[in-house]
Amino acid sequence: MTAHRPGLPASDHWRDKLPRRLRARLDHEGTHTGRRRLVVAASAAVAVGLVSRMTGYDVPRDWSGKALAGWEAAVLMAIAQAVIVQELDRVVLVEVAVRVDHYVSRLPRAIQREVHGAIAFVEQAAFLDGFVRRTSNLDPRERGKILQRWSGTNDVRQLAARAIRDMCLMGYFSQAASWK
Questions:
Q1: Other C-beta atoms within 10 Å of 142: how many?
Q2: Residues 121-180: pLDDT tens digits?
Q3: Smallest Cα–Cα separation from 116: which of 154, 67, 79?
Q4: 116 alpha carbon, distance to own chain's centre
Q5: Residue 36: enclosing H or E segment and its boundaries?
Q6: Around Cβ 117, how many Cβ atoms within 10 Å?
Q7: pTM of the predicted model, to two decimals?
């Protein structure tokens, strides 16, 4: 007999013939959170976390970068504030971002992608040092410590930290006011 034909014999005690684990699962069906609900909840938590880490940047007013997005300019300003020892006002920090943007806009597309990746990595990878917040939201001294620590490693952290640091220094020291 197959399931497609009518007249299957009915058994009142069919559950008793099932394996013990399957019987227990059927008895508790509907009383536990399903895997699908868990995946949906985890996905929602990840989405909220990503949105919170990727918004709220202090983008320079009227930013119209040729190669860099506004959030990347904000990250460069934060890194420049940490790398350059003296206190800098916002006008100088914005000019650092403008000069780095001009420099990056002249690089080949493949190198520009690497710069974008390095900025994103340096910004989001503060959790590798135990911080919950992104790098630009940390105190300038903490940012400097992270970059200093990463510069001593022998991996991608070193490459990204040094590249961003060097671009910020280039953007600062290419200003005539920095030499006074």
A1: 16
A2: 999 888 888 888 889 899 999 999 999 999 889 999 999 999 999 999 999 999 888 887
A3: 67
A4: 12
A5: helix 35-53
A6: 13
A7: 0.72
